[in-house]
Prior knowledge:
By secondary structure, the chain is mainly beta. The protein has strands at residues 27-31, 42-46.
Amino acid sequence: xxxxxxxxxxxxxxxxxxxxxxxxxxxxxxxxxxxxxxxxxxxxxxxxxxxxxxxxxx
Length: 58
C-alpha cells in the first residue's frame, strides 16, 4: 500500500491528497511508488522556466 500525497481531483477518495509541500507555482508533485505506507514519498519537479540554473565554471 502506497500513500499519494499529491493533489488529485475532488472525487478521488484519498485522505492524504494535497498534503504535499510542493510550491505549485514553480513545481509539480510526482508521487514515488513502491516505498510502502510512508508519508513524504513524492518529488517536487521544477516546471519549465523554473529549473535550477547550471553554471559551468570552466
